[in-house]
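Let us work through a complete example step by step.
Step 1: write down the sequence.
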Amino acid sequence: MRGKTAEDHRLLDLLDPVAEAAGYEIVRLRLMGGDHVRRLQIMAERPDGTMVVQDCATLARAISTVMDAADPIAGEYTLEVSSPGIDRPLTRLKDFAEYEGFEARLELDRIAEGRKRFKGELAGVDGEHVALNLEGEAETALLPFAWLVDARLVITDALLKRGADARAARLEHDDLDSHTNSDPDNKDTSP
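Step 2: predict the structure and record it as tokens.
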């Protein structure tokens, strides 16, 4: 799910080590467009799940260097590097564990339990299966991760609160760092 086409997967093989060396993880990669101008869209994040504008610029520079040298895309293309966003795609098994308790929409490439589309509360992972609590159903559905073609979080109040709490913690951490870094000897300079 991190890539859709064989070309996406070849690009992931090339760019995953670049992202990891720069301190990031590629969440999803899509090469879109026709024969003339294409768009290489990369969603990435730090291992802690954060991704700010400066991170996007840093990763874009690292990727551009490798792409210019390897030249794996015929013709012109535009590179876009972004964070996965609040209603992020869930593309790795660890995403389903990380967002356990939050609502998600999943789509399979085949029918399971009489349908291809599911919406419910993520209940973690069980081996190579995604666990999903479906509304009105007593048992947790176990869906093979390999069958997923699309999965993303649903924007809810709980998800928005998680995002706001994470931003507040990051700002508090940045504020503490700026106070610590403003005094090189880290001494209390209050009167």
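Step 3: interpret the result. Confidence is low (pLDDT under 50) at residues 186-191.
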